[in-house]
Design a protein that fits this description.
This protein is mainly alpha-helical. It has a domain at about 30-90: DNA polymerase, domain 1 (Orthogonal Bundle), CATH 1.10.150. The chain has four helices and two strands; from the N terminus they run H-E-H-H-H-E. The protein has a two-stranded parallel sheet. It is rod-shaped, with a radius of gyration of 20 Å. The relative contact order is 0.17. Keywords: Signal. This is Competence protein ComEA. GO terms for molecular function: DNA binding. One of its GO terms (biological process) is protein secretion by the type II secretion system.
């Protein structure tokens, strides 16, 4: 019985350690097509900033680069930097 407990513990520990390796990266958010609720999934982007992104995009056309997002009022370079790997321009 003791061997089974040790084995079960080892299997549990191994699965806990390896689980982040199996986790999928979240899909990149296309800032040219994302709606307000999708944009709020980004770090530091609440509903008001997401609405500002959509409004800017509607007034100025699609973004040419992720960095251009910093032109939106309330979105700074730091916010863009934090989310750069999670955003795409397609």
């Amino acid at each position: 019985m003791k061997k089974q407990s040790i084995l079960a513990t080892l299997v549990l520990l191994f699965s806990l350690i390896m689980s982040p390796a199996w986790a999928e990266e979240p899909a990149a958010v296309n800032i040219n097509t994302a709606d307000v609720s999708t944009l709020t999934a980004l770090n530091g982007i609440g509903e008001a900033k997401a609405e500002a992104i959509v409004t800017y995009r509607e007034a100025n056309g699609p973004f040419e680069s992720v960095e251009q997002l910093s032109e939106v009022k309330g979105i700074g370079a730091r916010t863009v930097e934090k989310n750069a790997e999670r955003m795409a321009v397609k």
